[in-house]
Design brief:
Strand content: under 5%
Mean pLDDT: 79
Number of helices: 5
Low-confidence stretches: none
Structural class: mainly alpha
Oligomer: single chain
Order of helices and strands: HHHHH
Distance between the termini: 43 Å
């Protein structure tokens, strides 16, 4: 939460005070600087943010909390921890339903 807040404050400061000065100083060429910032942000998001598509809430807890995640049942804990070890290839086929 603190990282998010500090990032938001830094971006607001940058947008409020730096953008007008830079636009005034180098005019339309500042758009190239902005494009570089956007590309850098895109690479950062692509390579450093964890993938969350297709995972259950228990998997998300393990991804973000690690081994400290609170899991309700032993079976769910085993399946959720398989995300860290990389053994979970297809969640839909590994689940057995009790009839």
């Amino acid at each position: 939460m603190t990282v998010t807040w500090i990032t938001a404050v830094a971006v607001i400061f940058f947008n409020t005070f730096v953008n007008p000065i830079a636009l005034e100083a180098i005019a339309w060429k500042y758009y190239f600087v902005f494009i570089v910032v956007l590309i850098t942000m895109g690479f950062t998001v692509y390579f450093y943010y964890p993938e969350t598509k297709g995972y259950t809430l228990e998997h998300m807890a393990v991804i973000f909390d690690g081994e400290d995640a609170v899991i309700d049942s032993k079976e769910t804990a085993i399946r959720a921890n398989s995300v860290i070890s990389g053994t979970d290839k297809n969640l839909a086929t590994t689940r057995e339903e009790k009839v």
